């Protein structure tokens, strides 16, 4: 009797362990579609009053007062000068007579939602900022700083031509693309800097909460509004500026803009915001 | 009496020499901190505070304040080692925070 009970208990335990194995494997496997669904559900569960597209307004979507501020700001948006400058720069020919339009599909109009993409020839992620500087260099022009001013103006104009279009990042059937996506995800959740913060510490665990005077933005849709005018910066900033300043704010030495880690991070963050509209250029407190 | 004074003076001088840090001590402490910070760099996880503490150590060393320089260098080394520990432990721990 005792022996039979022991065997039954052992068999039950073994079955239980076997049942857990696929779950553990599933957690370690790379499944961008499942990630995206879980990511978006997390935010819509956390903020049930918000529609999915509201998240692209960052902190301005987090409460009624901030939303009113955003509506007022959009009457005379602080990014307007940059947007105008970007439009002019975009159409002005390089010294060789070519323009940015010659470097991009659809002449560079309404394509923001497709960036970043995975370049199978290069085997790496290519962001819009990187593609713009490559375009300049290919046409004999010096590259722009990745963090502000000219680069922000150009990306502001390109984002504006895509306003309302849903983010549409593709992950090709290429193990290197999945690897880049996974590395971006790992970067997003990895704690770094002396303050021991990850991107997720602020933008997953605490969106809507204040960190000193600022209201933290949700990670969902955070890049859809790029580039942004930030009152804190007294000017425009690109995605590169956002990433590098986040790193230094947590007392981590930032990497160089457009290093592989940041390109992968942009790939991951953009992919999980697929379906949300492009709202850039944006304005933030 | 004079002999006692002379002996005391000698003892004090010897003790001071024994406890004051030398330039060589500072250089060794700085090199250890710098090496640890380079290791954190290879892991792509340097801290800004390590860099600023290393600069403070160098400034004190250049000014001849070797005691201060060694204290700063040791602090920088501890910070660098903490950043190495963070980078190493986060290789798996990041998964705890993941939205699933």
Attribute tags:
heterodimer; A: 285 residues; mainly alpha; Cytochrome Bc1 Complex, Chain D, domain 2; three-stranded mixed sheet; two-stranded antiparallel sheet; 7 strands; B: mainly alpha
Query: Based on DSSP secondary structure assignment, what is the total number of beta strands of chain A?
Result: 7
Mean pLDDT of chain A: 90
Write out the CATH superfamily name of chain A: Cytochrome c-like domain
Largest sheet of chain B: none
CATH domain topology of chain A: Cytochrome Bc1 Complex, Chain D, domain 2
Strand segment count of chain B = 0
What does the oligomeric state look like here? Answer: heterodimer
Roughly how many Å is the radius of gyration of chain B? 20 Å
What's the helix count of chain B? 4
Q: Which structural category fits the helices and strands of chain A?
A: mainly alpha
The stretches of 5 or more residues of chain B where confidence is low (pLDDT under 50) are none
What spatial form of chain A do the alpha-carbon principal axes imply?
globular
Description:
Helices cover 46% and strands 7% of the residues of chain A. Chain A has 285 residues and is mainly alpha-helical. Chain A has a single domain (26-285), classed as Cytochrome c-like domain (Cytochrome Bc1 Complex, Chain D, domain 2). In chain A, helix 4 crosses helix 6 and helix 7 packs across helix 10 (260-271). The termini of chain A are far apart. With 100 residues, chain B is an all-alpha fold. Chain B is built from 4 helices and no strands. In chain B, 29% of the residues are buried. The A-B interface holds A 27, 35, 38-39, 42, 185-186, 189-194, 196, 198, 200-201, 204-205, 248, 251-253, 255, 261 and B 41, 44-49, 51, 79, 82-83, 86-87, 90, 93-95, 97-100.
């Amino acid at each position: 009797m005792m022996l039979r009970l022991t065997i039954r208990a052992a068999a039950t335990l073994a079955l239980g362990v076997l049942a857990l194995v696929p779950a553990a494997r599933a957690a370690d496997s790379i499944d961008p579609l499942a990630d995206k669904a879980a990511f978006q559900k997390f935010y819509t569960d956390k903020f049930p009053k918000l529609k999915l597209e509201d998240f692209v307004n960052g902190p301005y979507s987090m409460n009624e007062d901030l939303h009113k501020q955003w509506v007022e700001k959009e009457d005379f948006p602080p990014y307007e000068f940059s947007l105008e400058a970007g439009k002019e720069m975009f159409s002005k020919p390089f010294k060789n007579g070519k323009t940015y339009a010659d470097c991009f599909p659809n002449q560079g109009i309404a394509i923001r939602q497709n960036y970043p993409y995975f370049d199978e020839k290069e085997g790496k992620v290519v962001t819009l900022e990187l593609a713009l500087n490559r375009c300049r260099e290919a046409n004999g022009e010096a590259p722009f700083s990745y963090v502000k001013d000219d680069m922000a103006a150009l990306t502001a104009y390109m984002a504006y031509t895509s306003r309302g279009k849903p983010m549409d990042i593709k992950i090709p059937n290429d193990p290197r693309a999945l690897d880049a996506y996974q590395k971006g995800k790992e970067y997003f959740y990895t704690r770094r800097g002396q303050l021991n913060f990850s991107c997720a510490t602020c933008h997953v665990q605490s969106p809507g909460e204040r960190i000193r005077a600022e209201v933290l933005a949700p990670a969902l849709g955070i890049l859809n509004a790029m580039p942004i005018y930030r009152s804190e910066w007294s000017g425009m900033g690109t995605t590169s500026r956002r990433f590098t300043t986040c790193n230094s704010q947590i007392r981590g030495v930032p990497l160089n803009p457009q290093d592989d880690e940041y390109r992968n991070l942009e790939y991951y963050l953009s992919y999980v915001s697929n379906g949300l509209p492009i709202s850039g250029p944006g304005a933030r407190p | 009496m004079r002999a006692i004074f002379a002996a005391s003076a000698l003892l004090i001088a010897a003790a001071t020499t024994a406890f004051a840090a030398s330039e060589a001590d500072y250089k060794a402490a700085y090199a250890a901190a710098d090496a640890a910070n380079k290791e954190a760099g290879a892991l792509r996880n340097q801290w800004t505070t390590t860099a600023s503490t290393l600069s403070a150590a160098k400034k004190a060393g250049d000014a001849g304040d070797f005691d201060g320089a060694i204290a700063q260098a040791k602090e920088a080394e501890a910070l660098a080692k903490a950043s190495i520990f963070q980078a190493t432990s986060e290789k798996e721990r990041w998964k705890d925070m993941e939205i699933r």
